Amino acid sequence: MVGKAAPLDMDDVDTDQIIPAQFLKVLTRKGLGKYLFYRWRFDEQGRPKEGFVLDRPEFRDAVILVAGRNFGIGSSRENAVWALMDFGIRCVIASSFGDIFYANSVKNGLLCIRLEEEVLHNLRSRAASGSMVLDIDVERESISLPEGGVLRFSLEPAVKQWLIEGLDEIEYTLRMYGEAIRRYEEGMRRYLKPRRDAAVPLE
To answer: In the chain, at which end, N or C, are there fewer CB atoms within 10 A of the end residue's CB?
Structure first.
């Protein structure tokens, strides 16, 4: 993944801030991006506010969000991940994530990278220029910086596999447990097969 990075210099960004509850009634993923960080981008009448980082011209094509700590805490709404991805965000870099948000991100192909806070602070400062492009290699678990430096991160083996191969929950389950599921289903079919000597109910 190669793309521009935008800084979000905030800690404890919860899922209600990512997408407010009033938009959870939208049942499709497409179009959720317009509600991303809604309260920070629009006033109570729905009029755009000025100054939010992702609405500034130099960051409108950003695909990487460099945040703070505890990104995605709060409720379990998967819509938060859908809104980020529909907006165009493909990677969030933070020092820590809400557990459920992280799990939802993996299921939907949103890359979440953990870096130390000091490294993050430096990265956000450099991203503020509006011209920092990062080259992220999931397989090598590395981030190549514009001037030639490299940052290292780590992913859980299963998460790495999901992201590289673009798996969804069903595909991953079938790959890991498909044979066990097949054996179970075969056993259930034998168990449920009618017995020839079964009693015939009297009329």
So the answer is: C
Residues 138, 89, single domain; the answer is yes
pLDDT in tens, 123-179: 999 999 999 999 999 999 999 999 889 999 999 998 998 898 876 666 666 666 667
| DSSP 8-state class, residue 110 | -
DSSP per residue over 151-171, as a string? EE----HHHHHHHHHT--HHH
Question: 15 and 74 in contact (C-beta within 8 Å)?
Answer: yes
- The structural domain count of the chain equals 2
Residue 65 backbone dihedrals phi, psi, to 5 degrees: -110, 120
Looking at residue 73, what DSSP letter applies? B
Quote the domain boundaries for residue 180.
156-192
The CA distances from residue 1 to 59, 64, 92, 176, 184, in Å, are 17, 9, 12, 27, 40
CA dist 40 and 10 (Å) reads 12
